[in-house]
Design goal:
alpha/beta, about 65% helix, Putative membrane protein, transmembrane helix, transmembrane
Length: about 375
């Protein structure tokens, strides 16, 4: 059995005529169409109802088992309207229960009403869809509905309207700038740069990365993480270390005859930088250890980190000093001193590893969260 289904998603029929829906049967649908045409001759749903009756009559004349019905939604929310249409279709199918399989021919007045097609398809097969609109208005209506849907999407709206709004503001901002003796070219360059940065930001999808970073920082602040402070301190120490490394290069260059070789330059920078690097590493590792302890995830082996940092710093400081001449801020080392420094760094690393491994095996620590 075929069901010619006239869809009025925003319930013009019920609101303007007071006729209860769903309307089932050719005679009742015709009366409803006449009532709606009388109440509002310009309503496009009048055409939908008359078209539904016409299709019904044509199929009946061809010997098809066919019925026509009009269903409506509600004004406003598309989701509520689709649900209302689905409920009315269920009532229509309950009244038409003949034991035969029912399929539908859907009659609508535009693209907006066709958003209900998945609801209809979930209840019965759809053999066809016919859109009935005034011919001169068909393209205009479709374009209007498309624009409406685009502007209803917050993401699309921001992507399209923000750059468009900035571009439309270029001319008035340049005029205002000229009134205050500000170079219009400068204003134009700033706006152009802002639009370019925004386009790159959206095109590369960086909004998710920035949002994630902001959320992480917010969580760290609210959770009272010690690492936030220690990382800031460590960063400051690294900046000081870079400056100190550069100053050490200048000091070595001042006592060196001729151009400073690349190896000596690197050794001078490391010699001045590594002390601050060690302090930064110890600071950040202590902050991380503190957070692990507060979170109940502490392990004795975590205490190896600051000792490893100190051991590596001793080795780098000694090796770089071995290749440098005496200069302000430089500690030149002889071969024996270098051997002692290397042995000290090795012992610090080995002994800390053994000590904390024994401590972890003998002293229980908190289970990981």
């Amino acid at each position: 059995m075929l069901l010619v289904l006239c869809v009025d998603l925003d319930d013009d029929l019920g609101r303007k005529t007071g006729i209860p829906t769903p309307v089932i049967g050719a005679d009742d649908v015709t009366e409803a169409a006449v009532a709606l045409a009388t109440a509002d001759p310009e309503d496009s749903d009048v055409n939908v109802l008359f078209q539904g009756v016409t299709v019904h009559d044509e199929l009946a004349a061809a010997g098809e088992a066919v019925e026509v019905a009009a269903v409506t939604g509600v004004e406003g929310s598309d989701i509520k309207a689709n649900r209302a249409v689905g409920a009315e279709i269920d009532r229509v199918l309950a009244e038409l229960s003949t034991g035969e399989e029912i399929s539908a021919i859907v009659i609508t007045d535009g693209a907006q009403d066709e958003s209900v097609l998945p609801v209809i398809r979930s209840r019965m097969p759809i053999d066809g869809v016919r859109r009935v609109v005034v011919r001169q208005a068909q393209d205009l209506e479709s374009m209007y509905y498309t624009i409406k849907q685009v502007l209803a999407d917050p993401e699309t709206r921001g992507t399209i309207l923000v750059p468009l709004g900035i571009l439309l503001l270029i001319y008035p901002l340049v005029v205002v700038a000229n009134l205050f003796d500000v170079a219009g070219a400068a204003v134009l360059g700033i706006i152009s740069g802002a639009v370019g940065l925004y386009s790159l930001f959206r095109g590369l999808g960086l909004e998710e990365t920035v949002d994630g970073a902001a959320e992480s920082v917010r969580n760290v602040l609210y959770a009272g993480r010690v690492t936030l402070i220690t990382y800031v301190v460590a960063l400051a120490l690294l900046v000081v270390g870079v400056v100190q490394g550069t100053d050490t290069i200048d000091a070595v260059r001042g006592v060196h005859d001729g151009a400073l070789p690349t190896g000596a330059t690197l050794a001078a920078f490391v010699h001045g930088f590594v002390q601050w690097l060690a302090v930064a590493g110890v600071t950040s590792s202590l902050g991380q250890i503190t957070d692990e302890y507060l979170a109940g995830r502490f392990r004795w082996r975590y205490l190896n980190a600051p000792f490893y940092v100190v051991a590596i710093a001793i080795v780098l400081y000694a090796v770089s000093g071995f290749f440098l001449p005496a200069a302000p801020g430089v500690t030149p080392l002889e071969l024996g001193d270098l051997a002692l420094a290397l042995a000290a760094g090795t012992l610090i690393g080995v002994l800390s590893t053994l000590a904390f491994a024994i401590a972890e095996s003998q002293i229980p620590s908190a289970d990981p969260a």
